[in-house]
User: Fold 6-phospho-3-hexuloisomerase from Weissella bombi.
Amino acid sequence: MTLVNEVVDEVNEVMALVDETQLVAAEKIIDKNKRIFILGAGRSGLMAKGFAMRLMHIGYSVFVIGETITPSIQTGDVLVSVSGSGKTGSVLDPSKKAKENGVKLVAVTSNANSPLGRIGDATIVVPGATKSGDGVKSIQLLSTLFDQSVHITLDVLCLMLSRRDNISNETAKATHSNME
Amino acid sequence: MTLVNEVVDEVNEVMALVDETQLVAAEKIIDKNKRIFILGAGRSGLMAKGFAMRLMHIGYSVFVIGETITPSIQTGDVLVSVSGSGKTGSVLDPSKKAKENGVKLVAVTSNANSPLGRIGDATIVVPGATKSGDGVKSIQLLSTLFDQSVHITLDVLCLMLSRRDNISNETAKATHSNME
Amino acid sequence: MTLVNEVVDEVNEVMALVDETQLVAAEKIIDKNKRIFILGAGRSGLMAKGFAMRLMHIGYSVFVIGETITPSIQTGDVLVSVSGSGKTGSVLDPSKKAKENGVKLVAVTSNANSPLGRIGDATIVVPGATKSGDGVKSIQLLSTLFDQSVHITLDVLCLMLSRRDNISNETAKATHSNME
Amino acid sequence: MTLVNEVVDEVNEVMALVDETQLVAAEKIIDKNKRIFILGAGRSGLMAKGFAMRLMHIGYSVFVIGETITPSIQTGDVLVSVSGSGKTGSVLDPSKKAKENGVKLVAVTSNANSPLGRIGDATIVVPGATKSGDGVKSIQLLSTLFDQSVHITLDVLCLMLSRRDNISNETAKATHSNME
Assistant:
């Protein structure tokens, strides 16, 4: 078996464990009339940014925590936090603080029982191997398998949202950055 | 004379050459009902981001070209482009393209006769030394003096905008990121 | 069939078309004694950053074009450029310039015959749907399928490099940012 | 008096209070044979990045906490942390953690007695107004005056370092990103 096949098989194994009812629960919280904030660190953070960018393409008012023009988060806003281990301090601490301020939290993690997993108003479990040892075992380094699977999972969530909102590919294309 | 004094004197010399009527012209273009896009590279780009962040604090709908949630720029939008030399390709090319698409351009540069300076609907000249040799001479490296002076200049523009719009310090504070 | 399954099937279809001999050719260029520069825009750019971060974890001297501490690229350096369409100006133009300056180029694109694909010293073709219409057709928006597949492909390349270089998971873990 | 003059006067007032012996103390810690890590949030973070970029130009091995290719910080490394209030959690907490791990800390703050100010191996006090009310009073919004003054202060430190290390403007220019 080639290395590509081995890696793809791992992704398939994790994706088979993703529970679409959890995506539906998250979909209900991600309301187009609300502001959506996105938080993640490291490679999970890059996947979180990819999700944020696509939400923008399909017409959401979305902000990435830590980027230049991100305002204060307020009661009534939605926060989507991504952490494989569910214990990353720079993700967990602001998520707790947001919850206390009346923000709805979508938690995305490999471990439903992690501190982050437990406080989600909706929690999406993506059980790919992380660097803290959670989830499906992997031949890949650190939390690579989590990153790959969370990427696909959040893209499926975007696809659900775009269908719910009747956003076509052409509409998304018109919103895509034209300064590249 | 101490090194701090020498550097501060350079900044004072450049700032004395900044023409407030150019700031007033830019202020007229930066309309709160329009979307404002910000573009810069390198250290100028960091100053541009600082300007964008403050515009957000005082209630503008502002985006930084190259960040995650920046949508396509459209006819009727405003672009603020910062380049010391006025020749940086990654700033100049998108600025030209935006102009062709009916975007109003505020150009910020050390050189009014540079390619960027010439195409601004308003052009703010900040004649600090740049790495291409324009502007007031400096003991500092590369375009440090331009960066320092453009920083202060854009902050003065923000102050003008906040006064025009009746935004208090308390209002700005409430919008400041609360996830740090 | 569930939506997760439909999306995973698309990824599997693209990954089956990735040619491992192209990865081997890229692996030869990515020399641990050289500086590796990474370039991409939009969501492809996020995938490129994920690749850069993992290269750092396994001990490479790697820089992302556009980030703060990225130095000038010089003869003898390696550039890895990612563009689905192979035509993105902000990726293509610097890639051409780098080639002219004696930099080795690894091109990653959905289209081998695109301007970027044609100039790679090694070109990795990841034929997922892009927003310009190249590659395997997809139910997903814009270049989502390319992003997902390029993510996995670059992770496979990292795995190949880590094995070649005898880097263990524990070694990579010790290099992973500890300030999160 | 024009608005530009009012703002420039504020900057002059703060800069007159910057103590060059504190810069000398910081200069001793910033050793070219060590790895330098830079940390800041919000607009202070942008100024911190500007400092990091210039350190790269003059030949330092420097990393920005939170950027893609930043490795783990280790005993023997140097951390430069910037926070106007000296209380920003995302700056203070990692700074404390780094200190415990044997990292030398240069603290840059408006308030010597703040939590960050107190733990610096060298502390540079830049007493510009911050949004928490420290420092010289200002007509400008939030911590604008701190940002402006810290910008100039860190540039003076860079100038001291470049002179100590005999780095010319031409050498710095050759290291400046050539992909813009």
User: Anything to note?
Assistant: The longest strand of chain B covers residues 35-40.
